[in-house]
Design goal:
Layout lengths: L4 H11 L13 E6 L2 E7 L8 H7 L9 E6 L11 H8 L3 E6 L9 H8 L3 E3 L4 H5 L3 H9 L3 E9 L17 H11 L4 E5 H7 L14 E5 L10 H4 L6 E6 L4 H4 L2 H7 L1 E6 L1 E2 L2 E2 L1 H10 L4 E4 L3 H9 L5 E7 L26 E8 L5 E7 L114
Parallel strand pairs: 3-4, 4-5, 6-13, 6-14, 7-8, 7-13, 8-9, 9-10
Antiparallel strand pairs: 1-2, 1-3, 11-12, 14-16, 15-16
Length: 480
């Protein structure tokens, strides 16, 4: 069945308004269409808040009976902090539901599709799947592994240096690049750095933009060397801050624990590996703390530890038009390194841009480039499916027995670029409670005077004129 891509594009655009607000749950947008016009739309606005489908239903300008719903993620069919969205869809008499991504959460994982089809709703899955999947890599990884999604980010010169031979490093990248990094900090719940970065640069590790959230700060400090007068310690009462230290720390280090606690710093005792914090148990601990995503901002030993243990999901690099030289100058990744070329970590480029000022931004996903799926649309009739056929899968894809289409349309257009959005961070209760909610440069680029990258404006109100003025069906009256 053909679908109208512009409505799914709108749902994707709405979903991005939740960036920085919904993790550890996913970003989700929903649009309800009837007789060629949008009659309701919504997105998940924050953890614990109504799901995107219910937000769209709450904004209806007329009855949704017989209408179509476009939603970026499979609707939930269980009760968590919010009631199941499938029940709301059925209550409204919606005839067809177009879904972008399947939800790998074991509490969902096909049950939403099955429930709708069991009650006679036509369901089409895989609609703009690639674009919808791109909304939630953090959530997909976290919900299937119970570990944070890790982005390794740094700035370097053209010859791969992050400091001169004297250790000078302010500033490698330009103002625009540093502004973009602050926007990135809004996307992830936490920032992690090594103690060397704190000792060398004394960074604040915040985003300095009041509209954005301030991520949790994590310092890997095996021997608890962090100075009590450092910026991260002095501001720990205002910004959630953790120090990961060795569980075998010295008595001298233990003497600092009461002072750190009084300052608001929480110390996590973690086993050692090769003289440094063992990153795997640390990631397990952070996952238990419901930290779904982390941006690592150095230094070199921390970067190597994460890479060596297979914990990095993305690498984001800002390459500055500078050359430092020097055999002793620091590089982004240190440690023992690999012995052979064939041992190098495979990555594939997914995004790149030359920024104002000449810095080159490049974003890589760890692993070989996936093969392109052929675009197609398959429709399965609205017949009941036995729940026993639903199989849990570790990836965001439709389970066996369900139509699963990499849907395309004659009206399909290019995916919308990721915008920076305001956000806040909240906690989560035991388990994942919502099926419909989510989610580098070095610290020497932590510049108070840097200009932010120009923000991309997007409508904050829903059920309004959207996409373009020439689409008259979208020009609908707003409800009070």
């Amino acid at each position: 069945m053909a679908y109208d891509a512009k409505y799914m594009e709108r749902a994707i655009k709405l979903a991005k308004l939740g960036i920085g607000r919904v993790d550890p749950n996913p970003l989700v947008g929903a649009v309800i269409v009837k007789d060629g016009k949008i009659i309701g739309e919504g997105y998940h606005t924050g953890y614990g808040m109504p799901h995107a489908e219910r937000e769209a239903i709450n904004s209806l300008t007329e009855s949704a009976r017989g209408a179509e719903m476009y939603v970026t993620l499979e609707p939930c069919a269980h009760t968590g902090k919010q009631p199941p969205c499938t029940a709301a869809i059925l209550d409204q008499g919606i005839r067809t539901v177009y879904i972008g991504s399947m939800d790998p959460n074991p509490k969902v994982n096909g049950r939403g599709v099955w429930t709708l089809r069991q009650h006679g709703v036509e369901v089409v899955t895989g609609c703009m799947r690639k674009e919808c999947d791109a909304l939630n890599p953090v959530y997909f990884h976290y919900i299937t592994t119970k570990r944070p999604y890790v982005v390794l980010k740094y700035a370097m010169t053209l010859d791969g240096k992050i400091a001169t031979t004297t250790g000078a490093s302010r500033y490698i990248s330009g103002d625009f690049a540093r502004g973009r990094v602050r926007g990135m900090r809004n996307q992830y719940p936490a920032i992690i750095v090594g103690i060397g970065t704190v000792l060398a640069d004394d960074p604040m590790l915040d985003n300095r933009r009041q509209k954005d959230r301030t991520p949790v700060r994590i310092i890997c400090d095996t021997h608890l060397q962090i100075p009590l007068d450092s910026k991260v310690v002095q501001t720990a009462s205002k910004i959630e801050t953790y120090v990961a230290a060795s569980e075998r720390m010295s008595e001298e280090a233990k003497a600092k624990l009461p002072q750190l606690k009084e300052a608001g710093v929480q110390v996590l005792l973690i086993p050692e590996k090769d003289g440094h914090i063992d990153m795997e148990p640390l990631m397990d601990k952070l996952g238990e703390m419901e930290i779904s995503g982390i941006m690592s901002e150095g230094g070199g030993n921390l970067s190597w530890s994460l890479l060596r243990d297979g914990l990095v999901n993305e690498v984001v690099i800002f390459t500055a038009p500078k050359i430092f030289g020097g055999i002793t100058a620091m590089t982004p990744v240190e440690g023992e390194g690999v012995n052979f070329v064939e041992d190098a970590l495979p990555l594939h480029l997914v995004e790149s841009e030359v920024l104002p000022g000449g810095d080159i931004y490049a974003r890589y996903i760890v692993g070989p480039e996936p093969e392109e799926d052929e675009d197609s649309v398959d429709v399965e009739t609205a017949e009941p499916r036995p729940i026993a056929k639903i199989q849990s899968t570790p990836a965001p894809q439709a389970p066996d027995g369900f139509m699963d289409a990499d849907a395309s349309s004659k009206n399909a257009s290019a995916p919308i670029a990721m915008e920076e959005m305001p956000g806040v961070q909240s906690s989560q209760d035991d388990g994942w409670a919502e099926a419909d909610s989510i989610p580098a440069h070095m610290p020497q680029d932590d510049d108070e005077d840097a200009e932010d990258a120009p923000p991309v404006e997007l409508e904050s109100r829903i059920v309004t004129e959207v996409l373009s003025a020439d689409l008259n069906p979208f020009n609908i009256e707003e409800r009070d």
